[in-house]
Amino acid sequence: MSGSTVAELAYLSRSLKAPRLLAVAGRLAERARDEGWDHETYLAAVLAEEVAARDSHGGSARVKAARFPAVKTIDDFDFRVQTSVKREVIAHLAQLDFLAEATNVVFLGPPGTGKTHLSIALAVQAARRGYRVAFATAHQWVNRLGAAKRAGRLDEELERLGRIPLLVVDEVGYIPFDPEAASLFFALISSRYERRSMIVSSNKTFSAWAEIFGDPVAVAAMVDRLVHHAEVIVLKGDSYRLRGKGEEVLTGSKRS
Ligand code: ADP
Ligand code: MG
Fold it and tell me: Of 13, 163, 182, 230, which has the fewest Cβ atoms less than 10 A away?
């Protein structure tokens, strides 16, 4: 390989976040010449090494580090049940252009409609593709930031989180926040605005967020930044958790 080809490969593998590709390209090329592989066989061998490296450490380590409550994928989401979101919309998001563009994804809808599932599925995809990801509920994020603030290192914590390309903020709205939360949550959102992505889910519409946070002014400012560059997906329908459970479970009544 000429020096300029090596430099080009180094650049390409860096932009693809595929370090293994560079590490094995030369060695496999030698083998390919020795064994008379055609070009396609060589390409497949190089890519297979990269995929194996991701599966073995990178990908699964990042999925683990993200602390998902459960690992979900797009493949195990049934779009025939949840018809208010099109598979193509999620498939497009799964190409992860939104991370490169530092824009957000917001899922809104009642309990059990797939908000957390789809949030995790997109984040798992990001982790597998080489992005660092962190998952927590809105309350966990607020607690973490509150602790950092009390320790006098809120800015430091926001900066640290700023190095993570994708944060998932689950369940805004199930439990009301205490008064400090609005400013902490605002700080989180504005620190990432146009710089880093978030996936946020909520069972409440934005108009109800004022009540959840108890601070309409801060809420207006945070929602403004959150949705300025965002795909907002509204999920409808009955809870997947309660499917086929029958009326007696839902109403507590027993049929005789
Ligand atoms: P939400 O966050 O909107 O309350 P979840 O995403 O947690 O709902 O979904 C509840 C459960 O139902 C999860 O176990 C999830 O994997 C499953 N689920 C929800 N919608 C679907 C779907 N359309 N296809 C497959 N599983 C689903
Ligand atoms: Mg949920």
Answer: 163
